[in-house]
Amino acid sequence: MESPTAKQDGRHARLERNKTQVVRALLALIRESGEVPRAEELAERAQVSRRSVFRLFDDRASLLRAASDFMYRELLERFPFPDLSGRPIAKRVVLLVDHLASVYEYVTPIRRVTENAKERDDLVDNERGRIQSLYLQQIRTGFPDVVPKEATIPGISLETMQLILSWKAWDYLRHERKHSIERAKAVVVHGLRLLLSPTGVVA
Predict the structure, then answer these.
(1) Nearest-CA neighbor of 182 among 110, 88, 105?
(2) What is this structure's pTM?
(3) pLDDT in tens, 31-81
(4) Which pLDDT score is estimated for 199?
(5) For the chain, which residues make up each domain, given as ranges?
(6) What is the dihedral of CA 174, 179, 181, 186, to 10 degrees?
(7) If you average pLDDT over every residue of the chain, what do you get?
(8) Which CATH architecture describes the domain 4-57?
């Protein structure tokens, strides 16, 4: 006979499994349509009942929050930061931009939806802030000779480097300027090389 603890553990495991199925289904549908799907469509894709969707998540805001958190945890595993140590600055720049381009292409469909969602809240913004802080730390580690711990260095603002490397800048190049991925990367690489070159000439 199954013990009460085992039953509770089994229910918890099913609950978490269903949550993951719903979140994965949501992300897939957003990537396909660029919109948050209806509950019926989401339930069908996740292979759960419509009632289960509402039982698992209190509202659309909590669902988007769970999806955002899941996606950013997944991208850290899927796109490990490149090793920039011991390489010339020009090579480090290319590796960094290649890495961020892959990350931004992965997150953009969901990021664009959550940027415009009326349910957007502080928890989603805080999750993004956590990731941005992580990347800032990795940038400082990858460019210790040009980006010290201080916020600025003579003639170069760390905020400028963050701006060039931001998702908003990437989104502008890809979706407003309609650049290809390779063209957008070339623009970002050019900007970084100008910024990091002591003479202002492309390295």
Answers:
(1) 105
(2) 0.78
(3) 999 888 999 999 999 999 999 999 999 888 888 888 888 888 888 889 998
(4) 45
(5) 4-57, 79-196
(6) -110
(7) 82
(8) Orthogonal Bundle (1.10)
The token duo for 141 is 């580690």
Residue 200 pLDDT: 45
Query: Among all chains, which residue has been given the structure tokens 């805080």?
Result: 126
